[in-house]
Structure formats: C-alpha cells, structure tokens
Specification:
Blueprint lengths: L2 H20 L10 E12 L2 E12 L7 E5 L7 H12 L3 E6 L21 H12 L9 E6 L1 H9 L2 H6 L8 E5 L22 E6 L9 H7 L3 H5 L1 E6 L13 E5 L2 H4 L2 E5 L3 H19 L3
Parallel strand pairs: 3-4, 3-5, 5-6, 6-7, 7-8
Antiparallel strand pairs: 1-2, 2-4, 9-10
Helix pairs in contact: 2-9
Length: 292
C-alpha cells in the first residue's frame, strides 16, 4: 500500500472517530444541549428560600454568554423551552427559573405575589448563580421574560429596584415579551425613574389585551434621548398576549388588563409572530452578548 493511500485511510478513520471522542457516552452528536436541574438560595428582607431551575448547556458550540429565562404568571411552560432550544443552538447557556414552586404554588395551586418586584430577588440570585458557572462570562449574561417575566426584565434595568434589593449586579441585555407597558411610572411599585445603560428589546402584539398597540412605543417616547437609543420596540400584527406559546388558546381575567380597567385577556398562538420573535431575541443576544 502506498504512503498516500495509508494517509487517506488514516484521515477517514480519524473523521469517524472524532465525533465519538468529542461527545461523552450517552450523548448524541445531534443533541443541542445537556439539561440539569439545579437549586440555589435567595435571600431578601430577612427571608430565605431556595429556587429551582432548569440549566441547559449547549453541546454543539459555546459562545461564553448566558441567558436567564423568566416565565409568566402561569409558571414554566412551552415558551421557555422553545426559546431555550434556539439559544442553545447558538451557543448560549440558558437557565429557566421556577418562581412559584418555592412559594408553594404547585400542581393545581396557582397564585402570584402582589407585585412583580417581589420576584426580583429571585432573578438576581439566578444572575449570581450564572456568574459563578465555569464557561460563562459574568459580564455577558442577559435576561428574557414573558408577561410577568417581561415585567421582571423591565424592572431589572432600574437602579432604583436594584437598590431596593441591595444588589450591585446588573444584566448586560434584556428582552421583554409583552411587559404591560402602560404601568410604568403610573402604578406604585412600577416606577422607572432611571435606567441602566443596557440594550432592551420589547416584543409585543398588536392585539394584546393589557396594552394598546402603541403602549410600549408611548412609554419609550417618555424616556430621555439617550435612554431611547437603548430601547427597541417590535409590535407583531394580529398577535395577542402570549403569542409565542404552543398551548391551546385561553382566557383569564386580570385587573391590570385593558390599561388598568380590568377584564378578560385572550392568550393564543400566532405562528408567524412566534417564529419572528424567536429569531429576533436570538439575533438581539448574538449582537449584544457575543464577542465579534
């Protein structure tokens, strides 16, 4: 056999063995991420609790950044898994927290705190957890939230709320899905008198029953010129609250809906908005969290 043929055969054999050596036993070469379930402590106002979370490490590639995912009022659902999968494929570590289990809302028991700010300590405890993970750059951690979690995204950019929970940490970028834009600086507990100099992407629907089609843009227009540069608002046509879910359509009653008048809120999928928003949040975090 010639030396050239021996080298060719060796290269073929190496190409077959490399995938087996890269992926550990029991892990498929097509698997996007490795999932672990973790807990970590939260402390605030002399109260202490532990929060559970789903941690997904990308296996195909890693960019050194991470994204915290915060669910809506109904708890962990399809939205987090949907966007987490996309982010994992792009190389992001993701952590989806469960705000309600630690508060005793399990199974058929549903509830929520009186204000979203009561769950800010959970989000910043998650940020501290992510900052300590090997392979995660502590300065390149973002946050995406849906509805209740979207409001967490909005409030997390506020130095006022950061001081209230005695943290000096901050997220590098935030995405807020349908974050009830009419409430800010109008309802006690939702004041945003000053903002971090970090990028924010708001993704909402034209037919969201909490807001009008212009509520988020109207809020943006109240900001100073420099703060406005950090905020981008996307409104998806014919999209209702929860447009990125895969669950069956549902109706709930919420006193915060219809600009605070209260009433029914329709939540249903809009497939086009779901796909476009998934790409929008992925592109946003790639732009602002990944070193180029």
């Amino acid at each position: 056999m010639s030396i050239v043929k021996e080298i060719q055969m060796s290269l073929v054999l190496l190409s077959l063995l490399l995938p087996l050596s890269f992926f550990p036993a029991g892990v498929s070469a097509s698997q996007v991420s490795r999932v672990s379930y973790v807990t970590f402590p939260v402390s605030y106002a002399e109260k202490h609790w532990n929060i559970a979370a789903k941690l997904s490490f990308p296996l195909q590639k890693s960019n050194g950044a991470a994204v915290l995912i915060v669910h809506g009022s109904g708890g962990v659902d399809s939205r987090g898994a949907y966007h987490s999968s996309t982010l994992n494929r792009e190389g992001f570590v993701t952590l989806e927290i469960d705000l309600w289990a630690a508060r005793g809302w399990l199974g058929r028991q549903f509830g929520r705190p009186k204000t979203v700010s009561e769950t800010l300590p959970d989000a910043f405890a998650a940020l501290e957890f992510l900052r300590g993970l090997e392979g995660v750059d502590p300065e390149r951690i973002g946050l995406v939230g849906f509805s209740w979690g979207g409001v967490v995204s909005m409030l997390s950019r506020s130095p006022l709320h950061q001081r209230m929970i005695s943290t000096d940490l901050s997220f590098a970028a935030q995405v807020a899905f349908y974050p009830v834009c009419w409430v800010y600086n109008k309802v006690p507990g939702y004041e945003l008198p000053e903002l971090d100099n970090t990028p924010l992407l708001i993704l909402t629907g034209e037919k969201d029953d909490y807001d009008t089609a212009t509520s988020c843009s109207d809020w943006r227009s109240t900001l100073g010129s420099e703060d406005q540069k950090n905020v981008r608002v996307v409104v998806y046509p014919d999209a209702a609250h929860g447009f990125n879910t895969s669950a069956a359509p549902a109706e709930v009653t919420d006193p915060f809906s219809h600009l605070g008048k209260g009433g029914k809120v329709v939540m249903k999928t809009n497939n086009l908005a779901r796909e476009l928003s998934d790409k929008a949040l992925s592109d946003f975090f790639l732009e602002h969290l990944v070193r180029h």
